Amino acid sequence: MSTSKSVSSSSEDDNELRRGPWTLEEDNLLSQYISDHGEGRWNLLAKRSGLKRTGKSCRLRWLNYLKPDVKRGNLTPQEQLLILELHSKWGNRWSKIAQHLPGRTDNEIKNYWRTRIQKQARHLKIETDSREFQELVRRFWMPRLLQKVKESSCSSAMSIQNQEIPLVLDDGVSQHSTVGTIPWQGPCVSMNEGSPTYMDQHEQNSDSEHNSGSCISFSESANIPKVSHHFAHTMDQFHALSSNDFGTYSYEGYHVNDNAYEIETFKPASARVAQDVQYPIADSQTPPTDWLSNDFACSMWNIDELWQFSKLQK
DNA sequence: AAATGACACAACCGCCGATGA
DNA sequence: ATCATCGGCGGTTGTGTCATT
Length: 314
What we know:
Blueprint: H1 3-6, H2 24-37, H3 42-48, H4 55-66, H5 77-90, H6 94-98, H7 106-124, H8 131-156, E1 165-169, E2 174-177, H9 201-210, E3 217-219, E4 224-227, H10 229-242, E5 249-252, E6 265-268, H11 271-276, H12 303-313
Parallel strand pairs: 1-4
Antiparallel strand pairs: 1-2, 3-4, 5-6
The protein binds a DNA duplex through residues 1-3, 19-22, 40-43, 54-57, 59-61, 64-65, 92-95, 106-108, 110-112, 114-116, 119.
């Protein structure tokens, strides 16, 4: 990005297109033009608005930043969960995934995936499209996000743990899960902005045709989460993990700031938990005993824990 | 306090499909 | 049928910020 040149305001550059970061004046100009003339016809907009930008650049700036319904700030656990779930289903179809996260742009989701998720894969030296990684996401990350969801739910409402909720599997089979309330909506969680996206009937049909993986969607009539078998299994597994019968899980803080919903470093409270939930750690590969009590240094996952797991998957 | 590195994110690039002349 | 233009998408890069040494 040749910003030094692009930001030049010398007269000889007046006819050149600007590049690089947008200024407040440019933002105002673009916003004003769109409020007067509407979106679209970006090249025409670029010419008539007085902006020395390409139509593409104007479009991108508007859609990713200036548009009023663009949501700023950290992704909520619900949104992260949805991204993981939808990415496992659609891959790098960022715009399609973004359609299911109101206010989030494809660019933002793409950045999230690359900076947060691919980073973990790199540390583990596995590919994000590999089966091992899918398993890691399913068995480690998603349950933890569910825990975060539950925590945020329970902090905003009185404890409603272990409430039985109806689920509809994606093949139409009903099932009850006691994973605790999944606060996709309702008074438990203020999810006006992070609410799940309802799929229209056509899309649900389309999904069912192509969906070999999993999906979280919602029955419009009953407001019941519709999940895949594997996602239901994840939640059941999570319930097993969090059940008092097996002890509790503690979370060692990983705080960026109050609004950050980073996945916290995860630590089972007792070794028995790990056995009971059948963590895939064979005797010969049992990690050091302090793996349960260590202050894990990694940010999102306990890399050692995941590394063990990924080795077993290979 | 300065240098360095890592990180997050905004912005750009190239490609492709749709559309209209 | 062909070509030009446009919009959209996914991949990549540049830059500012923050943390660490």
